[in-house]
Structures
1.
Amino acid sequence: MNTIIPKRLIQSGVTNFLRNIWISIAATSMVAITLFIISTILILYTLIALSVQNSTDKVGVVTAYFNATTTDKEMANVQAEIQGLPGVKSVQFTTRQQAKDLFKQRHQNEPSLLHTLDEFSDSDNPIPASLAIRANNLTDYPSIYNTLISDRYAPFFQTIRDNQKVINKLHSIIGFITKFGLVLALIFMLVTIMVTFNTIRLTIYNRREEVEIMRLVGATNWYIRWPFMIEAILYALFATVFVTLIVFIILMLLSGRIEQFLSVSSLGTSLIKALFWKILLVNLLASVGLGLVASGIAMRRYLKV
Amino acid sequence: MPARQSLGVGGIRDPIKQMIKFDQVTKTYDKVTALKNITVEIHKGEFISLVGQSGAGKSTFISLIIGEDRADSGRILIDDIDVSQIRHNNIPYLRRKIGVVFQDIRLLPNRTVAENVAFAMEVSGETSHAIKKEVPKILELVGLQDRENAFPHEMSGGERQRVAIARALAHKPVLLLADEPTGNLDSINAWDIIQLLMKINKTGTTVILATHAKDLVNSVKKRVITIEKGEIIYDQEKGKYVL
């Protein structure tokens, strides 16, 4: 008695699905397209977040170049002082010699540049010593920058370079992609609700006699409603399985290029695994949610119980 | 004519045996009064012929009993359930106590006779085992034991109406409502259906037969309630169709 009703309801839902198989396939495809878009956005978002993290570590730094006249002692004091500023994660000191070596290394394929540099003696080394200051958070950079350009430090530094602009740009790109993705997902969700709604409406119409008789012989409202909801859930399940598989095959095929693009050695199995579960869960929740909303509206309007 | 003031009779009868009680029930559809201040009692085991011309209010009477419509005023008690106050969610349970048969029969065309009867039992969560056991018994009662695998389109109108009656009996209802069950049948088939209803009545089920078939009502020789323009104008024991 306990299991017989759910069994019959599922059976009835499956019958609904199979009786209009082509319409069901069309509805499932629509759900699948939406899930595909949602999955793509999710992957893009994850990869961009990863890439931003990578680039923030690289560009998210304020570099302060010392005056040639600043003494070693002053440099050490300033470094210690900056180390103590709020929000500062690390301060890395680069001597003039280290800077010169680094410059040489970076431009080793440009003999004319190296030649020019070699014109200077070591004591006249034109490349300044510098402090590379990293913050705990991206939002800490502006205040650190402002402190460094204040009068307190003016005598020691010639130039202070921050990468706020680059960071800002990066953030606006992420913001744009997120917004664009969300709008796109929203549009497709609405279309999916409409398509599913219409399909369920058709099933309700096709089964109106049966529903009428069910009411007469004392079927409860939920007994009448469940098969239509199960039909919508079936679209969701098929679409979720299909899309999650497809997306992962594509992700695997493209992983080499993605790694290249992000300039990381490997995306890592843990990331892929986490992404897989995330996508499966999001797809499942999104599609079942959309299906229930759509069938709910259809039943409210067309199913008299 | 032994017309009976039904209002006064209520106290005479044993109240425990009361099956249906309409107490000053009025129902209006878009300014047309379908039932006007109806008061009537029907008792367990009775066979009632509810007669009147089309539009007199017979169908409204039935749809109020099964909770399909709500009365504007008055009380309707069915087996001690106040249908006029019943919660929407409880209507299905009321309907499992009442079997209904219509003129247009309403069978599922793509299911066999046995499946049509089983359908009613499935809905209320009966086990497959119970369904398998009960359906042949019900089909035997309506005389269709040999047709359980036939589809509705392979049957005559009379046979189809028997299937509908079998389906209505699936829940072992205490009350069977038949709204013009013979409307689409020839006189021989119609008489068969009436006899079947009387047979069911003999097993203890209260039967209400709404009809305007004069000859049938006159040969039944049971209580007749006559409705005209939404009012009960006659209520007679062993009555006749008098309109």
2.
Amino acid sequence: MKGTVRWLACCCLGVAALGYGEDLGSIGVGYALLHQSGNKDAFASQYDLSQGLFLENLQLDLRPVLAGFDRFEVKASGFGGDPFQHASLKVVDWDREWSLALDYTRREVVLPSPSLDLALAGGVAPGTPGLNDGGRFSITRWTGSLTWDGWKAARLRLDLRDVQRSGSQLTSFYGLGGPYLTRTSLDERVQEAGISLETRAWPVKFLLEQDITKYSREPIGGVGNGGQPLTGVDPDVLSQYTTGSESNTVPTTRLSAVYDSGRFELVGQGLYRRDRLDANNTNDVTSYAIDGGKVGQIGYLDALMGSADTDTKLADLRLGFAATNWLTLRVRGHWADVSTDTSLVGLTALQLAGPGGSLDFSVPVNDSGYLNRTDKDVAGEAEVRSGPFGLVVAYHDGSREIAWLHGSDYASESVTRDASGWSATASLALGRKLTAQVGYDDSSFEKYVFRIDPETVTRLWAKLSLRPTAGLEINAHGSRERMDNPVSVAALDRPTDALGVAATYTAAGGAFVSLSVDSLKLTSDVAILDWAPLLTASVSHYDTDLLTTSLRASLPIGKTIRIAGGGLYLKDRGDTLPFTSKGYDLEVEVPGPFDTKLAIFGNHWMYDLRNLPDQNYDVTRYGVSVRRRF
Amino acid sequence: MRKSLFALIALLAAAPLLAALPKGWVGRETCATCHDDVAKAFVDGPHGRLMADRAPKNLLKLEGNTLDLACESCHGPGEAHANDPSTKNIRTLKGASARDASAGCVLCHAAQVGGLAMRTPAHERAGIACLDCHVSGHAPPAAEPLLARPRGTLCNPCHATQAAQFALPYAHREGTTPFECMSCHSIHGGTTVRGRIEEDGQQRCVTCHTEKAGPQVYPHPPMAVDGCVACHSPHGSPNPFMLNRASTTQLCLECHTDTPSFHDLSKPTYRSCVSCHAAVHGSQRDPKLFQE
């Protein structure tokens, strides 16, 4: 990776040094140092910023160099000490009526350690060896599109996508009497190609898209922590953990139609998708070496072939009609049917092996199931506008039908959940100086797919935006949402209240300051049954009370110096998992040699998880960037 | 008087061009006679450059050279104003609401405006219009395409709660591409996101989290029915893995009241459900979701 950064930096600085004149682009290259105390892996799972050389920004407009193109842009950022890397190329040649866009992104992710969940469960002490992090992976995405615009009747477009995920995740599981770790591989690949045709010659515009997606996943299992159990020294070691592979080829067809006469507007869409997944688990083994193998082996073997066939059908229709200058009517209909049939055949076995030989106990498997979902929804709304005032009243009615058989050992389930509701939104716009909206939604449901589904949902909300003087913008918002269901179902009670205000002042010279304060209080109570150790009625109580305060400012001094920075203070005053998080940053940009600008920057993060101080960290990242326009 | 004279001369000079313009329109060159600094800034800006790039046949409703029509697309036909310069016979747009000021955008961007009205009706209901998020092109934009604010912060003034959620410890970091709002939300209702993920909003996550796309031989119904948000908060959460609850046990027990009696939840062994039922997103071989 460092080689890539050096290559990019050398190329770009080389181009800059050639001096092609104005507006060819800009480049920024930086070097950062990191000082950490506390839990480094917790910081990595939240920010994953590291130290070293990084490409802050590269922008190249190569039209002056490569004549004949209407657009020839290269952009890149993040290579090096940044978890996100991006590069793109856009080429447009309108004389020949084509355009090309290529995009590359790579995201590095560090997963939170499973020790946090285990610590909350009380099973494993914080700081247990082998549980430093939850594993790490990267997602690399290539996307490309080629558009040909030379046909007056239609536009033709070809899309390609390639997504690769690689890395592993550490997952704890209870094996022979204690928790062990598996290292699950995340190696998989998605390749997709699509072609689309967008007509423009007729009053009704059609968009026909045909995609084909290929998904493949390699065998994913592996042993973590050397097979040793997490609770200390145990003679029984997880000696082997292997799993199978998956593949799926998915064709998708979509036809959209849009008609807009100024008074009538119609949008329709139909989609069909077919998934045919094959899961090959013909050689899966989970085995333990008893007393390090001295006594023998105990293993669970699977030789199974699974399949899951899903057909997805979807239709949407939306119609708008401007009845008068002040009245618009809209109707919307939605239907979706997703049907999955599954099967699993083969053999599963328990194998005991010792010095005296081995014993196999095998059971044949022949299982099948299904999960079908059908959604129907219709909605109508009327919008009235008169001068600065607006009012929209809407009503909707729908249903969700679920039919489910998990497997032949389970009972089939079938439920149809009906929904209906209405909403009203009033708005006021006095030029751009003042805009305000107030809305109220009310929905009610019958029957339950899951016991935590609500019976009623109500939401009252308001937003206000003020621009009293040039450069000053004040926004405020508030909402109050209530969800519940009866005691006979789950006694769900979920209130959510949000309130916030933000003010930004931008001066003519580019200086600005902004301050925002936001409060979000979310509580959820659900009646549950708790085995502890006898069956008792209990309540699952979740409570967060978040206060977020953010201040940002940028101040140019003269034409060459700029100071920018800000702070974020975040506090959860709820009683479930209270924490305090702080972040500060400051950057000073000054003129440098050879028409460059030097930026000295520093960031500081602090995380304090009150009930689990093992997760706390204190991190400072600072460095310098060199920027140049050329 | 002097400005009128210049405008009249410009009108005469531009006579051959006028033949291709809609009735009552005078073209950009005529506008530039008086508003030369404004016109130059627009032409040199990104909106002007794009208009110059684009062949007029590809636009939906206008005939003639696109850039020549730029001024009057938003400010209305300028013939009367050119003959008699006054703020009363031209749309100045000063003090106009974003909705009124955006009326001109539809001439070229009908698909986006139509999509906004039809496919994102919440924005339409709230009176959100083009110039709430975009700049016209007279002033430099904060980001492409003609955005009024940097991409990661564009939606924050209205969606402040979601913006605050992006600052939570476990979050898809705000402003860090690709976690901009439009990576998941289709503001104009377009079909830029393709293939299997376009089925509905619940499927957006699997563009990156490809292994969760399914289908599974033994699916976990909340994911198959309600999607990822049944258990996760995609904007951000105080909890690891952006879960809706602090511990997986709490999350699971709210639905699973039918746990077998040997699940003695006073013992740590049973207080972390995923330690045994690891395949929470669905399994290809195990009905109890023990293994993927």
